[in-house]
């Protein structure tokens, strides 16, 4: 008897583990392709091309597959522990009969729900209903088309694990979850930094990390608010993609990434250097690093290093913006000793003349 109980326990733990791996697949499962999405990829189509339809189908299938778990457990246990007589339900205990009944009810309800959702080409699906609310009179398909187009762009912001992804496009903020995709329009939301969590070691990088939680609250009260969670280092990228400001009512201090911290120190140092005036008739070009900002720094040897291997005058015309110059400078340093960076040197990205932080001048307008 004791032996049979142990077997039942082992089976139960194994089954729970298996079910959990399907509900929230660990990285190993995802890379091995053992997810519902992968197995059903033919039916689901391409997420890249048809984001909304993909997730409508994915959530429906997921619901159906998950509803099979209780019955799957029962049948498996029937083979594993024959003494319980589960495969002959009329002979087994009444508790197991109730369990079997509930498992079947679970499948029936999910099937009815899934069938209801698929009616009229998914018009009744919760995601479609949500888009209908966002459409302000337009059909949900029009909203879906606009989201699909923006999702195909390469410059969207994405973060998060498989199944819980945050996506920010030019006009939409979205989060995927097991049975739903939360969608909000950038113009109609209040984004609030609600919580920060510090973790000493991260699974990925083994250094202290800070996670930020944001609440996305739509102006339309019928839309469900949702939270998005990301590493503090990604905050800058998120902010670049958002058109409205992030509220930080609780004044949470956001940790910056090393390169952001360095850029700030770099900028501060350079603001105390002498400014460089462009000669008459000369105009600043676009920075050749980012192709976006105007070049606004010039390397002029100002420090008093004269020894061999020390700073030399650079004769290049201004071609870089301060951020790109700062990033270049940081990339040439010993990455394990960030405290030494500001006191070190780097070659000019164009002519290789050595310079230090004292030799970088802001260009005066
Ligand atoms: Zn630049
Ligand atoms: Zn140069
Ligand atoms: Zn120097």
From TrEMBL:
Mind telling me which InterPro entries this protein's record contains?
A: TM129
Q: Which PANTHER family match?
A: E3 UBIQUITIN-PROTEIN LIGASE TM129 (PTHR31322:SF2)
Keyword Transmembrane helix among UniProt keywords: yes
Q: Where's it mainly located?
A: membrane
The protein depicted here goes by the name Transmembrane protein 129
Q: Pfam families recorded for this chain?
A: Tmpp129
Q: Which family does it belong to?
A: Belongs to the TMEM129 family.
Q: Name one GO biological process term.
A: protein ubiquitination
One GO molecular function term of this record is:
ubiquitin protein ligase activity
Question: Which keywords does this chain's UniProt record carry?
Answer: Membrane, Transmembrane, Transmembrane helix
Instruction: Decide whether keyword Zinc is in the record.
Output: no
Entry's localization field: Membrane
The entry's cellular-component GO terms read: endoplasmic reticulum; membrane
Which domain of life does the UniProt lineage start with? Eukaryota
* Transmembrane parts of this sequence: 6-24, 63-84, 96-117
Question: Which topology term describes how it sits in the membrane?
Answer: Multi-pass membrane protein
